[in-house]
Amino acid sequence: MMDAFLIRALLAGLAVALAAGPLGVFVVWRRMAYFGDATAHAAILGIALALGLSLPLVAGVLVAALAIGAAAAALSDRGHAADTALGVLSHGALAAGLVAVALSGGARVDLTAFLFGDILAVGWADVAVMWAGAAGVVALIGWRWSRLLTATVSDELAVSDGIDPRREKLILTLAMALTVAVSIKVVGALLIGAMLIIPAATARAWARSPEVMALWAVIVAACAVGAGLWASWTFDIPAGPGVVCAAAAAFALSLGLRRP
Q1: Is the CB of residue 31 less than 8 Å from the CB of residue 232?
Q2: Mean pLDDT of the region 175-188
Q3: pTM value?
Q4: pLDDT for 200-209, tens place per residue?
């Protein structure tokens, strides 16, 4: 029988896989990796906000991720300056968050856990919140799936079909903020981007359709969670980085087995 904390960790990791899989395919297709990092790094600002206002950590992370995500979405439309602006926003949000946490009572918070994750420490309440958030992400993306696909293929095609590309980008921003809030305790702010990108990039080599790619991204992420937890238990390594290493190993394996 598995210990209760391992069961909680597995369930938490599977919630992250469920949220990150379908969202990650859009991150890969739209080349939003840096955008995802900016949103994830804002999680530390959210922790400071929650500490300062005595809010639940998930609420603070969600508000900060939404704010930075919206700012990043606005800046990403500004030509060649977008990468630079996103870089400043990403690293600035992370640094400002670390300073803010220190000034607002950082002694009460293990920042390492929020930077790199502490999946083995999640409780049943955390698991419930994570699954609720993951269900919200899946429902949101499923509701807008065809519109998001059209806007991803071409802004002009989306407009001709009566779809506002900016609105679809804001929906992706909301989904990303929810995913960050769900994932912060599992893989941490510095590794959330990896769980968005690596499983989707792995699935891309095998999928024949967008729907199949999203499904395979969830499967790869779930397998990475299981393998990372096993490695953490067996070799006494940090669980969050272990999960990401397992996902990276799956990507490397897919390169060797890619179909012609």
Answers
A1: no
A2: 86
A3: 0.88
A4: 999 988 888 8
pLDDT digit string (tens) for 151-180? 988 888 889 988 998 888 889 888 988 898
Do residues 185 and 118 touch, judged by C-beta distance below 8 A?
A: yes
Pair of tokens at residue 45: 């600002």
**Cα separation, 181 vs 66, whole angstroms:** 10
Range in 137-146, 186-195, 241-250 the model is least confident about: 186-195
For residue 77, how many other CB atoms are within 10 A of its CB? 10
Q: Which of 13, 16, 26 is nearest to 173 (CA)?
A: 26
Residues 6+ apart with CB under 8 A from 148: 26, 141, 168, 171, 172
**Domain topology for 4-190:** ABC transporter involved in vitamin B12 uptake, BtuC (1.10.3470)
User: Measured between alpha carbons, how far is 30 from 60 in angstroms, rounded to an integer?
Assistant: 27
Whole-number Å distance between alpha carbons of 73 and 131: 26
Question: Which amino acid is it at 55?
Answer: L
Selection from 63, 60, 47, 58 nearest residue 105 by Cα: 47
> Which pair of structure tokens corresponds to residue 207?
């999928």
3-state secondary structure at position 3: coil
Tell me if residue 2 falls in helix, strand or coil.
coil
